[in-house]
From TrEMBL:
It holds the Pfam family Cu_amine_oxidN1. The keyword Signal applies. Keywords: Signal. It comes from Paenibacillus methanolicus. The keyword GTP-binding does not apply. InterPro entries: Cu_amine_oxidase-like_N, Mao_N_sf. Residues 1-24 form the signal peptide. This is Copper amine oxidase-like protein. Residues 30-133 form the Copper amine oxidase-like N-terminal domain.
Length: 281
């Protein structure tokens, strides 16, 4: 009997340990209701939820800058500086103590979720094996934006993608508004058929529509790129933007148009960009 009891205790300990490890490995993270499709999942360490830095920074809209063992995260008027393996952080110039130190694992920096999320104005909730982060809703002229719909015209039909997540929506809007240049004349000719376009025509790159919770459009923008002449070094295309609300045309940064595609790529990787319509053959 004495030999059996330790064996039972060891078996129970093994089961509990395995269960605990499995629980940590199965943690899912949601931001604004969207399950994050990250390669590396959050994990519990010393009873604190730790997440890969890129996961939290990308999905709450924070910019990241590395300097040695320090990393700075900025969003609007908020700035956080973290140091690897240090329980001290700097938030808007003031030193604060962390209840969990940032650490490296598999070449990724894990950071305390609750501190970062709340420092950027987010709320954090836990339910079983899911941790939910809700960012602040984004508003245009007092109306909450529910999603951004992006339509790309093809030779036949079109594809419509939907961008979700408050941080992604805000970043998209800022990219459009902050990169408008001087007002310009409307293009003389907009090509709707790739086979009939001429040098100097403008192709529509994408139509971007910010929609409210009822599905109605709040505001929309159209991006157009000039068709180069034959043999001309394409380089960076000349891009213009049409602001539907203003009914005006503006020059637009070609670099910013590339940043829009990069934003979409990140959003798609994390589960925030989905195709909602495809009318191409």
């Amino acid at each position: 009997m004495k030999k059996i009891l330790p064996a039972i205790l060891l078996a129970l300990l093994f089961i509990l340990t395995a269960s605990s490890v499995g629980y940590a490995a199965d943690i899912q993270m949601k931001v604004d209701g969207v399950t994050i499709l990250a390669e590396v999942k959050p994990e519990m360490k010393n009873n604190r939820m730790m997440v890969p830095l890129r996961v939290i920074s990308e999905n709450v809209g924070a910019n990241v800058h590395w300097s040695g063992t320090e990393v700075a995260l900025t969003k609007n008027d908020r700035k956080i500086v973290l140091t690897l393996n240090s329980d001290k952080a700097v938030f808007n110039g003031k030193t604060v103590l962390l209840d969990a130190k940032p650490y490296l694992k598999d070449n990724r920096l894990f950071v305390p979720l609750r501190f970062l999320a709340q420092s950027f104005g987010c709320t954090v909730n836990y339910s079983h094996t899911t941790v939910s982060v809700d960012t602040k809703p984004f508003y245009i002229d007092g109306v909450q934006v529910a999603a951004v719909q992006e339509e790309i015209q093809m030779t036949m039909g079109s594809i419509v993608d939907e961008l979700q997540g408050h941080a992604y929506i805000e970043t998209m809007y800022n990219l459009l508004m902050q990169n408008k240049g001087n007002e310009v004349e409307a293009p003389a000719r907009i090509s709707l058929n790739v086979h009939n376009r001429l040098p100097g025509d403008y192709d529509q790159v994408v139509q971007i529509d910010f929609v409210g919770e009822n599905g109605d459009s709040i505001t929309s923008f159209g991006l157009y790129a000039e068709v180069p002449s034959e043999g001309e070094d394409e380089g960076e295309p000349k891009v213009v933007i049409y602001a539907e609300t203003e009914k005006r045309w503006y020059a637009f940064s070609s670099k910013a148009s590339q940043e829009i595609w990069e934003l979409n790529a990140i959003a798609g990787k994390n589960g925030f960009l989905t195709m909602i319509s495809n009318t191409t053959p």
